[in-house]
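Lecture 7 notes: from sequence to structure.
We start with the chain below.
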Amino acid sequence: GKLGDAIQRSATMQEVDVQGNGIGADGLDRFVEGIASSTSMTAVNLGDNSLGDQGASKIGAAVARSSTMQDLDLQLNQIGVEGGRDLAAAIAASPSMKRLALIDNEIK
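Predicted structure tokens for the same chain:
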């Protein structure tokens, strides 16, 4: 909701860390829209938020649309093979991504 709107409106915010906030896949919609349309966001830490494959797919779509995202931390999010595939496709489409952290997920 409000955080996603703030990210979208800010011309200077470069990093956001919301690790361990219980966001879940359902709480991501406005947040990822903010990331996708931000002209300044370069790093996001969404670690330990129970995002799962659905959340990884939503984030991946935003990363693919972002022209500035460089660093994404998604550790401890129960992301499996499906979410991993969606993230890989997003990174391949991204003009700016440099680092993706997927520590302690379920990608095998």
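Points to note: The mean pLDDT is 94. Residues 59 and 88 are 11 Å apart (CA to CA).
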